[in-house]
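To the team - NAP complex, inputs and output below.
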Amino acid sequence: MKYFIITGASKGLGEGIALELIKEEHHLLCISRTESDQLKKIAAAKNCPLDFFLFDLAFSHDIPDLMQRVFDSIHPEENSGVYLVNNAGLIQPVSRVEDMDADAVDVHMRVNLLAPMLISSAFIRLSRHMQVPKRILNISSGAAQNPYYGWSCYCTGKAGMEMFGLCISEEQKNEAYPVETMSVAPGIIDTEMQTTIRGTDDRDFIHKQKFVELKESGQLVPPALAGKKLASLLLSDGFRDGEITDIRDSY
Ligand SMILES: NC(=O)c1ccc[n+]([C@@H]2O[C@H](COP(=O)([O-])OP(=O)(O)OC[C@H]3O[C@@H](n4cnc5c(N)ncnc54)[C@H](OP(=O)(O)O)[C@@H]3O)[C@@H](O)[C@H]2O)c1
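Output:
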């Protein structure tokens, strides 16, 4: 049995990744504030164990306990691999730096950066004794490498997530059963996050019109397609520890 811990699998890209991983020999452990009924129904129909852990990732202090509960679902005798997909995220607050709301910045950095750091930390600690393949896939963004007017929180969080992944690879490379980590920018995916982006004020996000046009011209990638690419990358030899990549041109 391979175990997949996926944050933000209730909708959007995370749901697309989870859908692709639904198989009898996989056990999906999904973390988000809400559930996906679709995912639960398909998993049940295909005999794939799937659990939702309802949790708000802004509650950083409770993440170690959450991860202990998640790992309690892993049966050592049937474990043939543990995988973590750090996917949950939000785009808000979108504004110029001087207009930032402190509470919104606090929540953003907890969910987009602190949560993947603490979840990865617990994942490495709790899987230390497991002599199986272990991988972390960070869902990043082109915004990690390129500054966008109005997206300073988002760019900073994603850049931090990528660097954190590189540090994990550096620490793990001489372990007998290392945790391999890769960060991937998935392209522009047709999810609620894109709806939010199209709903922002032009003055807060000056590139908004470009995103409106991408949607209108049918250029957004369906989450199921992006999920397929990312799920197969996670399990393939193409998963390269310590690398950061962008798959936007692969669709
Ligand atoms: N869409 C794009 O074009 C695009 C491009 C590049 C990168 N990405 C990245 O892809 C990832 C998924 O984004 P998406 O487009 O699929 O967005 P989405 O449709 O808005 O889904 C976001 C997911 O994150 C979860 N989430 C958000 N806040 C949470 C919280 N406080 N606690 C727990 N879970 C939380 C949501 O679950 P609940 O609401 O149920 O809690 C949901 O499952 C993000 O990391 C995003 O930065 C997206």
